[in-house]
């Protein structure tokens, strides 16, 4: 090293360029190809997962829109008015449905059931079907189905 020339630098043997050993570049290329394959696989898995999640959300969302489920809702007594239209629960309405259709109930219970039916399409559908079956009239059955279809179309319009 020349002390008079500060631009001249001492180079260690480690920093000098040396040719690659045979097989180093092919090994490097192989590793990079494997990384690229893994990256594509992960991207594909992410896309499939996203599609499954969207499909599940759509499926369960449509089930919620299609009508009440068969699951029982647990409510406290203070919240019971929210889930009890007309002051009477769905199972009670269904139990009294035949007598209601036959006009065999007292006025108070009839009014409760009518108030419930206004706010509960599930029970209204059951009562309409019961009326149609009791009369065994095709026109009544068609009218009940048409009423239910209109109600479902109304609900769908509200949710869009």
TrEMBL record:
Task: Tell me where in this chain the Putative zinc-finger domain is found.
Answer: 90-124
Record Gene3D superfamilies: Anti-sigma factor, zinc-finger domain
Regions crossing the membrane? 41-62
User: Could you tell me the superkingdom of the organism this chain comes from?
Assistant: Bacteria
Q: What keywords appear on the UniProt entry?
A: Membrane, Transmembrane, Transmembrane helix
Q: What is this protein called?
A: Putative zinc-finger domain-containing protein
The top of its lineage is: Bacteria, Pseudomonadati, Planctomycetota, Planctomycetia, Planctomycetales
- InterPro entries listed in its UniProt record: Anti_sigma_zinc_sf, Znf_put
Query: Which Pfam families does its entry note?
Result: zf-HC2
Organism, as annotated? Gimesia aquarii
